[in-house]
Design goal:
The protein is mostly helical. The protein has helices at residues 25-37, 42-60, 70-79, 86-105, and strands at 5-6, 9-10. The longest helix has 20 residues, at 86-105.
Length: 122
């Protein structure tokens, strides 16, 4: 600790890194959907955007990324069970998971709460 703090100061900028404001799922999914537009076919992009706008965002839009739990995602996916086929529910999970993976890549969250959820739904 003495190497990092000399005269009470953080000499190397290691101890007091500025913390990023945690975005909401809606804010971050908007950033993600713009990013993937260049990496996916237009039809795939539109399918993802439709799933987000019609189904996922009404549930998670205003929640901070780090407050969404595996239980929240499981409950959301289970609520869609009577409405959609298993493959469509998996697509909803993929959209959620991709947003969280993007946040992991930017070091906003440590883990993906959507990872592996549908294995338990079948």
């Amino acid at each position: 600790m003495r190497l990092l703090r000399k005269n009470g100061k953080d000499e190397f900028g290691v101890l007091d890194k500025p913390k990023k404001e945690m975005p909401t799922f809606g804010e971050y999914s908007d950033k993600w959907i713009k990013y993937i537009r260049t990496m996916r076919r237009e039809s795939t992009h539109e399918s993802y955007k439709q799933k987000l706008d019609r189904h996922v965002l009404p549930v998670f839009k205003d929640r901070k990324l780090n407050t969404i739990t595996r239980g929240d995602i499981r409950d959301y996916l289970l609520s869609k069970a009577g409405e959609f086929s298993t493959s469509t529910i998996c697509l909803h999970r993929d959209v959620l998971s991709d947003v969280f993976n993007f946040a992991i890549d930017e070091e906003l969250i440590p883990s993906n709460p959507a990872y592996g959820i549908t294995k338990r739904l079948n």
